[in-house]
Design goal:
By secondary structure, this protein is an alpha/beta fold. It is built from twelve helices and seven strands. The strands form two sheets. Strands 3-4-5-6-7 form a five-stranded mixed sheet, with helices on both faces. It has a two-stranded parallel sheet with strand order 1-2. α1 crosses α3. The chain starts with a helix and ends in a 17-residue tail after the last helix. The model has no long low-confidence stretch (mean pLDDT about 95).
Amino acid sequence: MGHGIAQVLAMSGIEARLFDIDGSVIERALSKVRANLDKGVEKGKVDAAVREDAIGRLSGTTDMDEAVDGVQAVVEAVPEKIALKQQIFRDLSAKLGPDVLLATNTSSLSIADIAGVAEHPERVTGMHFFNPVHIMKLVEVVRPEHASDEAVETSVELARRMGKEPITVTDSPGFASSRLGIAIGLEAMRMVEAGVASAEDIDKAMTLGYGFPMGPLRLTDLVGLDVRLSIAEYLEREVGERFTPPAILREKVERGELGKKSGQGFYEWDV
């Protein structure tokens, strides 16, 4: 998600710096951005000059101080682990002044729990992007109880500047999109498990019958089965047993069938 967010920021005329503790992750991320932009130029959807300008606005570093020097906003996009996110926000808020927006790309975790460890928690919001970021139009701006109006408005305006359509939701388990999306995805998995239909035909039912741009099982493969399992377990704890992960999801994750990133999920993928 991080490289997609950085790509769209750069294409919107905003300088973007990628940070990771592993330099090879940054190199792969920048390579993916270049590949996305090249494909866009190839298909006539991105002007060659836009590609060059965007690449020029992108950089990466393994030095946190260098990454945040002079920034106006930070969007965190690490895995859905609350302790990891809290540590990052604790570190970021100690380094950055109170006027810098701190946004988390979490798809389900409590923004209040993340903001609670930060200095000046009123400047922390959720900015939930969707994968692939350079194509999907929605950004879910999540408002925890103590967020300032200015932080929420800044998040909304940043999303709009990136060419996205923002919606604003309160800080509740799964927000709006993840809660609905996971409910549909889990039921689709139970249908595969029960032999109701194949993954392909269940997805086709939703794309052709209900106008979904992508079926729930193909989307699960793109998001990552491990990510969806973590979200489902969190929603089960917070909302109730209707979000209990089906056995097929747990078994696939245990086997390392995580979706597109591993080459196998509900579909087979080239990696």
